[in-house]
Amino acid sequence: MIQTAPQRPPLAMALNGVRARAPLRLGLAGGGTDLSPYCDQFGGAVLNATIDRFAFAHLSAEPEGRIAFRASDIRAEEVYAPGQAMSVNGPLMLHKAVYQYMTRTYLGGQQPSLTVSTTTDAPPGSGLGSSSALVVALVEAFRMALDLQLGPYEIAQLAYRIERQDLGLAGGRQDQYAAAFGGINFIEFLAEERVIVNPLRVRRGYLNELESSLVICFTGQSRQSAGIIARQVEGLRQMDGLVIENMHRLKADAGAMKQAILGGDIREVGRVLMRSWEAKKGTASGIATPVVDELFDLAMAQGAWGGKVSGAGGGGFLMFCTDPENRYRLTSALNEAGGQASAVKFTFDGAEAWTVKR
Description:
Number of helices: 11
Order of helices and strands: EHEEEHEHHHEEHEHHHHEEHEE
Shape: globular
Structural class: alpha+beta
Helix content: 25-40%
Oligomer: single chain
Strand content: 15-25%
C-alpha cells in the first residue's frame, strides 16, 4: 500500500540537497510477461539483474521561487516562475510528473522552489530500463527529502503508477521493481497488480562465472519501445494464439534461467537466452532489425553461446553469453563491426539516497 502521509510543510532544502541513484538492469528472461493483460490473466515471471549503470537524481533549493527541471545528458531544461502552469509533456515529463505527484500527495499541493536534475548512464531507449530507473531515483530522492517511510515495494509501485498510469506510457512492471530492489531477482507478476520479488542467492563462484561470461553491446540505435509493446498488447487482447504461446515460452524460460543460474550451468544460460530470443521475436514485429541481426550473427560466429536483446527490442542493448576465455575476442569483434561492446558487472543495492551539504 502506497503511504499517504498527512500534509507537510514545504521541503526544508535550504541546508542540504538530496541525491539519489537507482540501478539499470539486464532482462535475462521472461521480459514481456510483466505486461497487462498477460500477467493479469496468466501470471508473469521475469528474471533480471541490475548492473553497474545508474540513473541519478538531485534535488536542491532554487532561488527566486522558481521550479527548474534539468537533464544534462539529453540537454533539456525547463524553468517555471512562481505560479506558472506546468506543462505535462516534453522530454522532461518524468521529472514533472514525479514532482507533481509527490507535492500533491505529500505536501497538500504546495509546490516548493526546487531544482530537479538528473543524468543516466545509458541513452533513452537502451533496453536497460533507464526511464523507469530514472523515475525510481526521483521518487527515492523525494522520499528522503520528505522523510517518508516507503520501502522498495512502495517505491516501485509508486514509480509504476506515475509512469504507466498517470502518464500513460507503455510498458510493463519489471523495471521499477528491479531498480527499487537491486540484485538478481526472480519476479512474479500476478493478478490485481500483486508482485512478489524473490532475490536469488547464487554461490559466489557461479556468480563470478556468469559475470565473466557476459558481454553487452549497444547497437547504436535507441529504440522507441512503445510501438512494439502496443503490438504485443494488441495480440494479447485479441488472444492471438502465436503471441500467447510465445509469452508462455518466455515465462517458462524465466524459470529455466533461474535454475541454470542457481546451478551454475552457464552453457544452459546461453541456451535459454537463445530460446527466449526466438520466442520474443514471435510476440510482435519490429523486435529484430537489420543492425540487430548483423551484430547477433557476428556474435554467434565469434563463439557466443547465446544471446538476446535486453528490453522490448528494435535496437538498444544486446547481451551475449560466451566462454570467459573468449570474451575479449567477442567484444573486440563487436566493436570492430560498429557496436559498443563491453563487459558488465552486477550490482546488489537498489535505489538509495543521501544528503549533500551546500
